[in-house]
Amino acid sequence: MDPIRRSLLGQLARLSAGAALVPLSSVANAGINQQPPRREGDPTKRYGMLIDLRQCIGCQACTVSCHIENAAPLGSFRTTVAQYEVEHQETGEVATFMLPRLCNHCENPPCVPVCPVEATFQRQDGIVVVDSDRCVGCAYCVNACPYDARFINERTQTADKCTFCAHRLEAGLLPACVESCVGGARIIGDMRDPESQISRMIAEHGDALMVLQPEKNTMPQVFYLGMDERFVTRPQAEPVALDVLDPHGKEMGYEFHH
Amino acid sequence: MNSTIELLAPRYDIAWYPWAVQYFFMIALSYATLWLAAPALVFGKQKWLPTARLALLACLATTLVAPVALLADLHQPLRFWHFYAYANSHSWMSVGSLILPLYVVGVIVLAWLAWRPALQANRQAPGIAGFIARWLSLGDSPTPRALLVLVGLCTLALSTGIMLYTGAEVAIVKARPLWNTVWLPPMFVATGFIAAAGLILVLNPVTGERSTVVSGQMLKVMLGACLVAGLVAGSWFLDGINADVGSVAAAMQSVRGSAEWRSTALWGGLTGLALFGAVLYLLSRPAPRRPALYAWTWVLGLVALHVGWMFRWVVLMDVQTVARHSAGFHHYGIPAGSSGILGIVGTFGLWLAAILLIDLFVPWRQARQGGSAADLSPVTPAPAHPAAQSAAENSEGTPSHG
Q1: Percent helix, strand, coil in chain B (nearest 5)?
Q2: What does the pLDDT look like over A111-134, one tens digit per residue?
Q3: Most confident option among A112-116, A213-217, B329-333
Q4: Quick one: average pLDDT of B300-315?
Q5: Contact A110 B174 (CB under 8 A)
Q6: A157 → closest Cβ in B75, B87, B182
């Protein structure tokens, strides 16, 4: 659209009635939708994860081990690896891109303030957890997360998500996904400890690290190394998987469009 | 430019079920009909009394059903008391959970005050109707007009809280750009008023009132609400095509190229325009022709209800199918069970039951602005003002209701 038309339409938008409503939105977001105080956890630590995409082969070992460790219901995932086929339009060269996804344990988690009963909260070590005894299953947090990191667990009927395997960290073990990663692509650690591997890698790679959807101002604490910036936001990709149903309408599997 | 195909990504289910649509629809009808009942009941405008009677009936029925739908949308409905045991002032939903019960009580008390003189007049009626009238009217004392006004004003104030929280609750969700806009709360309110005016246009002939005055007033309300809705939708759209950044632009980007979304937008726009055009046409007819034309306004009422409900369906259900960090759109088929069709039908069934029960046992046609049973007595000579006269006429037509 040419600039003159654009600015004319801009003036029209500004003239229209509801411009007075704009200040209200800042009240809605800032005044009420603020982060409640963090509780529990070790205040001397701040856990984060760095995923070295150069090492990821898309084997889904993390997906499977997480699924077993945390007993998620079939079809729901606390972590998973999305896979994309990228074709260069001129050369026809094809590459596969792997994107491991999990909760980003954001510094400004949008899922926490929305919880009407403070069942989901951020611990002082940065890990975002859900108290499933308190959760009412309103699913507001599931909608508030831009990363699809949360789901309603069909067995407990409460919100469920990645906890960085807090129960394993407390026992001195690594999270299941980190433990099982064949390429050593997932690195977890305390970012307040300058000697930890994650702190050293953050210092080393600095600007090369990327996070998902930074424009949402959630300040994710899962950092990607070797990331393609086209996958930082919702990928402009063609979905190909189609459900294959049996005569009774039950899902049998997928087939591809092409 | 490369072309990319998503080979593998999980399917993400929707998190809010059609119960949410039912709640947002019912509560919008509730607050909008409350405001349509207010001119006569609270601010004393006699000309609005016939409208107020229908509006109060609709308001109480929707107010009673809305919280049921809301409760059903929780995956752990029996834990609803956690809302009060662990209230979180940082959450709009928690704020809403504090406003909603107060609002429901306010509406119930307001309806009781408005219906009390008529209930008192029915105390001597035979059978169950008289029993209920004696039991519900709580004595013979007159109902002070000031008390009705006070309760009305408080409930109106609480209803603005409902408008604000239902809108803000959805509009602050940054994860969904189609929700994250300041234009959403006013659009909920505007479409709520369109639907509420539509509901009264439907109730007007269904209850046998068939008042041309009511139809005329509701057409005017609908015209205003359509104008506001058009302005809000237009501003949102202009905001979106003017900015490369920002949530409206992101929202439009997220559904660009989807044939379904294009046809949804077209359908919404055309239905809104058709409704607006029809209302304008009816209002501009010469007075002698109006009664014949206004007999058909219930059709417009159904269209208006469709607009109000579909807007909420598209906003709350369809938007959840727009993928957030994967490609394309998630599939959603409405299940047959209680989280789908049965829930939708059940909510409307419950609403119908509520309205029938009120119609059976409460002389809602004689709702008035306070006073005592003596004011209703048919033996008094013809009252001076027309509204009281219509009340007296109505009382003759209601023996079947007690």
Answers
A1: 70, 5, 25
A2: 999 999 999 999 999 999 999 999
A3: A112-116
A4: 94
A5: yes
A6: B75
Same domain for B217 and B316, yes or no, is yes
Q: Which two tokens stand for residue A129?
A: 């957890």
- Final residue before a domain boundary, out of B313, B332, B351: B332
Q: Which of B13, B97, B239 sits opposite A13 (nearest CB)?
A: B239
Quick check: is B71 in a domain? Answer: yes
Q: Are residues B63 and B168 in the same domain?
A: yes
H or E stretch covering A96 = strand A94-101
For the stretch B309-313, contacts whose Cβ atoms lie closer than 8 Å and that sit 24 or more positions apart, written own/partner, are: B309/B21, B309/B25, B309/B195, B310/B267, B310/B268, B310/B271, B311/B187, B311/B188, B311/B191, B311/B268, B312/B21, B312/B24, B312/B25, B312/B28, B312/B188, B312/B191, B313/B18, B313/B21
Instruction: Give the per-residue pLDDT at B303.
Output: 95
- Number of domains making up chain B: 2
CB < 8 Å to B325, chain A: 101, 146-148, 212-213, 233-235
Does residue B202 sit in the same domain as residue B271? Answer: yes
One domain for residues B54 and B94? yes
A-B Cβ pairs (cutoff 8 Å, strict): 229
Please write the tens of the pLDDT for every residue from A24-56.
555 555 567 788 888 998 999 999 999 999 999
Q: Is B371 part of any domain? A: no
Q: Is the pLDDT of residue B382 over 60?
A: no
Whole-number pLDDT of residue B64? 96
Weakest-pLDDT range from A2-16, B211-225, B290-304: A2-16
Domain boundaries, position B306: 183-332
> Across the interface, do B4 and A237 touch by the CB < 8 Å criterion?
yes
What's the gap in Å between the CA of A23 and the closest CA on chain B? 9
What domains can you pick out in chain A, each with its CATH number? 47-230 (3.30.70.20)
Does the pLDDT at position B402 exceed 50?
A: no
